[in-house]
Design brief:
137 residues, 7 strands, Pnp Oxidase, Chain A, alpha+beta, six-stranded antiparallel beta barrel, 20% helix
Length: 137
């Protein structure tokens, strides 16, 4: 299994991310449900235009985030950090992926966004203490 396949497999096991944004000196972090397309290296998320993080993103689309497995067992610690660009969703294929993943969201008619990832760092202690897998696009 390639490093990118290991990263994608970890992402597929989860559905919530933390996303950090910044505008000037103001920081924001939020939690978002996501769908993931491994071929596009993209997350699809829903968020309102009125949120602080979307206001930040409109001025500065560079974002960072993480997905983690919450555990107290050191040998099972796994977590992913990522960076990328947050843009308005245009691809119908990705829109369909989001609603396939979260069919109840269709009734809410949410605004969908795409995070085009250019960097991943996966920590997986099952592979050895502090083992890191890094992928840069």
């Amino acid at each position: 299994m390639s490093d990118l396949e290991k990263i994608s497999a970890f992402i597929a096991q989860h559905h919530v991310m933390s996303l950090a944004t910044t505008l000037d000196a103001e920081l924001s972090v939020c939690s978002l449900f996501y769908a993931y397309d491994a071929q596009e290296l993209s997350f699809v998320v829903a968020s309102s235009e009125e949120t602080t993080h979307i206001k930040h993103i409109k001025a500065n689309p560079k974002v960072a985030g993480n997905i983690l497995l919450e555990t107290k067992k050191v040998g099972e610690i796994r977590g992913l950090q990522f960076r990328g660009e947050f843009v308005a969703l245009e691809e119908k294929k990705l829109r369909n992926l989001y609603f396939k993943t979260f069919p109840y969201a269709l009734a809410l008619t949410p605004t969908l966004w795409q995070i085009k990832v250019n960097y991943y760092k996966l920590t997986d202690n099952r592979l050895g203490f502090g083992k890191k897998i890094v992928y840069k696009k």
